[in-house]
Amino acid sequence: MNGRRVDVAGVAVATGHYINGTRVDSARTFEDRSPLDWTLKLADVSRGDGTDADAAVRAAAAAFPAWAAKSAAERAAYLHRLADLIDENVEPLARVECEDMAMLLESLRLRVISRGARNFRAYADLATNYASRRWDSNGTHNAVLRMPAGPTVVITPWNAPFMLSTWKCAPALAAGNTVILKPAEWSPLSCSLLMDLVDQAQFPPGVFNLVQGIGEEVGAALVSDHRVRRISFTGSPETGRAIGVAAARNLTPFTAELGGKGPFVVFADADLEAAATKAAVMFDDAGQVCLAGTRLLVESSVADDFLERLRAASAAHVLGDSRDPATTVSPLIHPEHLARVEGFVERARAHGDRVIFGGARLDHEGLWYLPTLIEPHSNDAEIVQHEVFGPVLTFQTFETEDEAIALANSTPYGLSAIVYTGAQSRADRLGERLRAGTIWVNTFLVRDLTAPFGGTGISGIGREGGDYALDFYSDLKMYQVKEDTTHG
Ligand code: NAD
Fold first, then answer.
1. What is the mean pLDDT of residues 124-139?
2. Would the CB of 207 count as within 6 Å of ligand 1?
3. 166 and 278: one domain?
4. Per residue in 240-284, pLDDT tens?
5. Same domain, 335 and 237
6. Pairing mode, strands 392-398 and 293-299
7. Are residues 326 and 468 in the same domain?
């Protein structure tokens, strides 16, 4: 099961697919480079095509009946084994992910990789403890049962590839589906390491497959295959639309976790220091976080005070090598992405938006962009209405709660919203009136894996998390037995 391997940060990483329990290498490859040093080629990774997609779906379809027939507890044993192996391999996974997408090494070591293990454990336990809804009515005993849906394609983006991939694959597998994972071509390596652990955990061949390659090539082939019965996608709204069209052709249910442009609303009654400190956290991971609150909306009476505190908190950031524990802001993932972020800021300037701080690359070689704050000339400005996915926040003020809510709800996105206020009653009103899949008050990124997760508007379709995900990966079945049916 070895396949071609390269050394990345002292770890031997397979560069091929993992199909039917075997490493498969493609003749064609794509280059994977490190954002920490763009001159460094990490790997030539297999560039899957329609033949690889077909082989992976065939394997997943062949493995499906036996995996679906196992009890939830039997499947849970595999997921728990995999979770244990992830916990035993935090260090190599963290080092490879850091090299590949430049997330801070310390946070990978301390939180992000072990969250992958938690994802598998949480869904193993949830699926095992599922209590089907049962009741009597109209002379029948009734129950809602879950049927595993079938082969499932999971497509993930380049930011947090390990965490996001495990978050989606865990419920699919726990629900009894077989999986084909296709990670993003800008950060494909940690998911390859995951397949080594799948192999060690002795999953039956074909249950959990990995295909590497370009989205428009092998990704498009996978989501167009009629044998696939679920598609789970995380990425941009543009790709979400394309996948939705492909899914519709085969009437394949799909779920889409898409981009965000979250408001970060600060009221005068808030703890301003706490709010400003948290706002500066939006620059972590170079702002490449879908859930970030990137539109700062601050009550006018405290705007100057808040701004000074934010300026100080942002100035404390250290842009540097993600392997250095002192670094708090990593480089961006790719020169194309850096150019995209830069383009947003340059267009904002050209349209009369005011750059309050930042607004330039870091003054040396590399993919760093300075934490940037922009005051837009209008709420219709591109920089307010479009996701930048970089270390760029906007700054606007409001006079009243109604105005704050109107501004907060004024983009086509609806993934998350953050509110800072000292008043519970105000918090409750905003909780009711803000349009977003997740609303955090006086906190950020606190996650309970049983909670629903997803977006409204162009931020997504469907909900993941807890039983919501297990329902998506299942076909619900209504089972009715006439009450006087005799035993025997
Ligand atoms: P992207 O849409 O460009 O790519 C995502 C994945 O889709 C990649 O694996 C890519 O290869 C694949 N893909 C591209 N075209 C495809 C096609 N036609 N058919 C099948 N697959 C295809 O997104 P990205 O640039 O990798 O990620 C950034 C985006 O992801 C941002 O918008 C961000 O907000 C979003 N995101 C959302 C969440 C969430 O939970 N809502 C989490 C992380 C990232």
1. 94
2. no
3. no
4. 999 999 999 999 999 999 999 999 999 999 999 999 999 999 999
5. no
6. parallel
7. no
Selection from 384, 311, 308 nearest residue 344 by Cα: 384
User: Ligand 1 in contact with 292 (CB < 6 A)?
Assistant: no
234 Cβ inside 6 Å of ligand 1: yes
Around Cβ 466, how many Cβ atoms within 10 Å? 18
Report the candidate in 263, 312, 288, 294 with the shortest Cα–Cα distance to residue 439. Answer: 263
| Per-residue confidence (pLDDT) for residue 488, from 0 to 100 | 65
Pocket probe mutation, ligand 1, options 101, 115, 155, 239, max atoms within 8 Å of Cβ: 239
Ligand 1 centroid from CA 259, angstroms: 9
Q: Does 484 fall in a domain?
A: no
453 Cβ below 6 A of ligand 1: no
**Ligand 1: nearest atom to the Cα of 415:** 41
**188 touches ligand 1 (CB under 6 Å):** no
Asked if 224 and 272 sit in the same domain, the reply is no
Which one of 217, 290, 387, 464 is the catalytic residue?
290
DSSP state of 178: -
pLDDT of residue 131: 85
31 and 127 housed in the same domain: yes
Is the model's pLDDT at 1 over the cut of 80? no
Q: What is the mean pLDDT of the chain?
A: 97
User: For position 348, what pLDDT does the model report?
Assistant: 98
- Over residues 449-459, the mean pLDDT reads 95
User: Contact 78/127 with Cβ under 8 angstroms?
Assistant: no
Which residue minimizes the CA distance to atom 18 of ligand 1?
Answer: 216
CA-wise closest residue to 223 among 197, 188, 250, 200: 250
Shared domain for 39 and 64, answered yes or no, is yes
Q: Are residues 365 and 468 in the same domain?
A: no
229 falls within a domain: yes
pLDDT at 486: 79
**Structural domain for 181, as ranges:** 5-259+454-478
β-bridge mates for residue 299, sequence order: 398
Q: Is 290 a catalytic residue?
A: yes
CB of 215 sitting under 6 A from ligand 1 = yes
| Ligand 1 centroid, distance to 238 Cα (angstroms) | 8
**What CATH number is attached to the domain comprising 428?**
3.40.309.10
Q: Which residue CA neighbors atom 42 of ligand 1 most closely?
A: 290
pLDDT, one tens digit per residue, over 376-429 is 999 999 999 999 999 999 999 999 999 999 999 999 999 999 999 999 999 999
Selecting among 257, 299, 387, 464, the annotated active-site residue is 257
User: Which segments of 70-160 does DSSP mark as H helices, in order?
Assistant: 72-88, 90-101, 105-107, 113-128
262, 260, 236: which is closest to 407 by C-alpha? Answer: 262
User: Is the same domain home to 269 and 245?
Assistant: no
Query: Within a domain: residue 437?
Result: yes
Q: Does a structural domain hold residue 197?
A: yes
Please report the atom of ligand 1 found closest to the CA of residue 460.
41
Return the CATH number at 159. Answer: 3.40.605.10
Cα separation, 18 vs 86, in Å, equals: 18
Domain count, the chain: 2
Query: Do residues 86 and 135 lie in contact, with contact meaning Cβ atoms separated by under 8 Å?
Result: no
Give the nearest ligand 1 atom to 239 CA. Answer: 2
- Ligand 1 and 260: CB distance under 6 A: yes
